[in-house]
Amino acid sequence: MNLHVPPYALIDRPLWTPDTVKEALVDAFATIERTTPRVGPTRAVQQIFRGKNPEEVALIRLLNDDQLAFLRAGAKQRPARVTPQDISQAEAVVLGTDEHPAWLATLDDEHRPKLVLWVLHEVGKDLGIRQKTLRQRCEQLRWAKRSFYRHVDSAAGKIAVRLNRDGIEAWLEPRR
């Protein structure tokens, strides 16, 4: 049995994994929330979505409802120390760069809403925001919970493969 090893995997540098991609997405959206409280992460997500997919439209409606909770929690939070490097990395993740598109923008319409919901839920947990559980959110959106998690991991994996293929070095180490 011959295994094909992609060329980027032969280079001695840290590679992205689905877990490090998810962690970087949460860090990026948390940084945006801490540095731009009037805009917040849900507004950044709306810039990424085209709004044509029914799942994305439903998710945007839910996120609009949550926007006030993010703003209220952000106003109560003591600002965390955010470095220029944190801001640069958050911008690269959420907005993209001249060379590379925003991470979520490269996903298909089926996977993107699920990963966004998971990321914003994790950001909310990091900021101490009371929110509905992911199970409740999945029920609201009529998504099967098992499929939801499978899509989240698949989406993060697709982003990791693209980042590794494009030669973008991982700036996070996987948590163990």
Topology of this structure?
Elements: H1 18-35, H2 40-48, H3 54-76, H4 84-94, H5 112-127, H6 134-141, H7 145-165
Helix pairs in contact: 1-4, 1-5, 1-7, 2-3, 3-5, 5-7
Overview of the molecule:
It contains seven helices and no strands. The radius of gyration is 16 Å and the shape is globular. 30% of the residues are buried. The protein is 60% helix and 0% strand. The protein has one domain. Helix 1 packs across helix 4 and helix 2 runs antiparallel to helix 3. With 176 residues, the chain is mainly alpha-helical.
Characteristic terms for this protein:
single chain; 176 residues; mainly alpha; 7 helices
Structural class by SSE content = mainly alpha
The count of DSSP E runs of length 2 or more, i.e. the number of strands, is 0
The chain-level mean pLDDT equals 77
Order of helices and strands: HHHHHHH
Q: Count of helices?
A: 7
> How many structural domains can be distinguished in the coordinates?
1
Helix content: 55-70%
Shape: globular
Query: Cα-atom Rg, whole angstroms?
Result: 16 Å
Largest sheet: none
Distance between the termini: 31 Å
- Name the beta content range: under 5%
Low-confidence stretches: none
Q: How would you sum up this structure in a few lines?
A:
This protein is an all-alpha fold. 60% of the residues lie in helices and 0% in strands.
